[in-house]
Amino acid sequence: MRTSTRIAGALTGLTLALGGVAFIAPAAHADVTACINQVERELQGGEAPDSIRMACYVGLTGDHAHCVSGLTAGGVTNGTAVSACKVAPK
Predict the structure, then answer these.
(1) pLDDT band at residue 48, thresholds of 50, 70 and 90?
(2) Structure confidence at residue 43 (pLDDT)
(3) How many DSSP H helices and E strands does the chain contain?
(4) For residue 18, what pLDDT is reported?
């Protein structure tokens, strides 16, 4: 196989792989945003601190228990934490 054909194939594969990431990334960001927005509503307009944002990112991975414990440790009520963590992995 010629070198130019190999390079073209590798570039095509890389382009397709990165294009797939572009389709997935906005959906993941929206889910974390939904989690953060629920918490911010409880904070009545205050911006969520980094600890809250990190807990929502943990929820994105599907680790519901650690998401809830992270949010409650950050001062969020248990009810809000549970509902916010439910929307994170969707």
Answers:
(1) confident
(2) 80
(3) 4, 0
(4) 46
